[in-house]
Amino acid sequence: MTKSGKYEYGFQVTGIVRFILVLLITITMNGLLNSCKSNGSKTEKTVKSRKSKSGQIYQWTESEGKEFLSQMRQSNPTPEAWEKRAGHIHKQILQATDLYPLPERCPLNPIYGKKRMYDGYQVENVAFESLPGVYVTGSLYRPTETEGLPPGILSPHGHWPKKEDYGRYRPDVQKRCAAMARMGAIVFSYDMVGYGQLGELGWQHEHPETMKLQLWNSIRSVDFLLSTGVNPNRIACTGASGGGTQTFLLAAVDSRIYVSVPVVMVSYRHFGGCICFLSVCPLLWPGCRGRDSGIPKRYTGKTVSDCEYQ
Hints:
Elements: H1 15-39, H2 41-48, H3 62-75, H4 79-96, E1 111-112, E2 116-117, E3 121-131, E4 134-143, E5 152-156, H5 171-182, E6 186-190, H6 196-200, H7 210-227, E7 235-240, H8 242-253, E8 259-263, H9 281-284, H10 297-300
Parallel strand pairs: 5-6, 5-7, 7-8
Antiparallel strand pairs: 1-3, 2-3, 3-4, 4-6
InterPro entries: AB_hydrolase_fold, FrsA_esterase
Transmembrane segments: 12-33
Protein name: Acetyl xylan esterase domain-containing protein
């Protein structure tokens, strides 16, 4: 990154480049699968010993994975059953975050900062109201040239150990957003509660209402993205760590998300380590029934054995 804030990693993502990337990923995955098959019992024995400090298995053997997937298929054997289950999860997430029914949408009243022009894309700081007087802050990346209605992508960020690594200004986050803008998408990278400009405004991240406000901010970020002229049928969301959590929660409650790519975050056996994930425990973790998830009692006042999967 240069002193001017511009990333100088010039490349052109063409159809042939994308094809090569997909081919390399496919070859790599096939090699890994073949390696697992050839190692047989040795692989199973090694993987089975990988447990967290609380005794939970965080990496299953191939046979354990197949058994679990079989159970999941039996629980929702038809597309109709999946749709019914999705509707149930949709409602429960909104109820757990105290967003059911959804609040009334106020005008966004967006505020745009100065445009910064780079090679193939431009960036501007943005703020808009998710609630009257409550602002969402972020960076809006646009391609310098577009054909037709561009796709829109939301980019929620995650947590990192060092304060200077937090948020939407991480170099890897900026590079990802810039790359997608150069490929033709309008990308909105926005602050989680207590981070970036929201932190400067005095918001605290570790608060019992964080999950509620962050999810509502994400829903309103879809509204904002649509106001920029993107294709309403080509809306995506992707983020890592806490951004991965925001991605799958948003996709579960907002049908306008057509592509969802959550990366490395909570599962039904992994809490995540932050109060901003608490509301999903009783709803998304079939494995939390009576198990120790490692959720600090200072956050909950009770153990996960009180959480019952519905």
